[in-house]
Model the fold of this input.
Amino acid sequence: MTLTGRKLSVILGGNTIVENVDFRIEEGQLVGILGPSGSGKTTLLRALAGFRPAQKGRVVFDGRDLYEEFEELKRSIGFVPQDDVVPRVLRVERALGYTAELRLRDFSPEERKSRVSGVIRSLGLYDSRRQRISNLSGGQRKRVSVAMELISRPQLLFADEPTSGLDPALEQSLTKLLKKLADQGRGVVVTTHIMSSLEMLDAVCVLDKGQLGYFGPVDGLKEFFEIDDYINIFSRLQAVPIAEWQRRYDRSGLRAEYL
Ligand SMILES: Nc1ncnc2c1ncn2[C@@H]1O[C@H](COP(=O)(O)OP(=O)(O)OP(=O)(O)O)[C@@H](O)[C@H]1O
Ligand SMILES: [Mg+2]
Done:
């Protein structure tokens, strides 16, 4: 499984929100999109997932044009939005059962049931399976949102700020879980502006004002941005114009290896 975005630009309401961005993810990888609020992370994520196509550029999923063949390819793609859309009055198991009915129409009831219990187990939701979603903690609810998308076993999972609003321990455990999902043979793309679980990412895409400042390994970030602490990436982005980061990135040799 490989997904690449090439020269993606998204224009919304007359403004260029994402400009000329390249991206790449392969099977087994957890890739993060990092950037200040309003830098275009959600917009890029939707363009890469095909849910709101970019006006310029293309996304290629296993050699096929995602936008041209979206109706077929979307079955292999899961998307967890920034705001929960899980039905809160339902109990966890029931909500997942409905999702299975909707998405696995050709399956027998037994097959759906076993898919639901598998997902419940793999996301650590067994003990809360009979609880109403409204009574769950934020972290549990996020896991239900991810579970819903995993029902159809997508090869590629996109999650928009899956760890926002979680305490640091929950944030780490959810990131670990997302990494595990990637290890099982998927690609997982997350957006984040939290820096504490960066080390678990296989690659990171840094956006500023809709443009790509860096795409490469996490352990290259400090040298590239000349910082001691990841948290300082944002102030470095403010201090140095994005065009300069792009010049430095092009000189770094990372493009050939990671994009
Ligand atoms: N439909 C739209 N029409 C016009 N502008 C939009 C639209 N959607 C988003 N924008 C603008 O695009 C910019 C990027 O938005 P986006 O939601 O992609 O940012 P983000 O990096 O995900 O931010 P956050 O970290 O706050 O979630 C923002 O300035 C936003 O106001
Ligand atoms: Mg966003």
Remarks:
- The first strand starts at residue 2 and ends at 12.
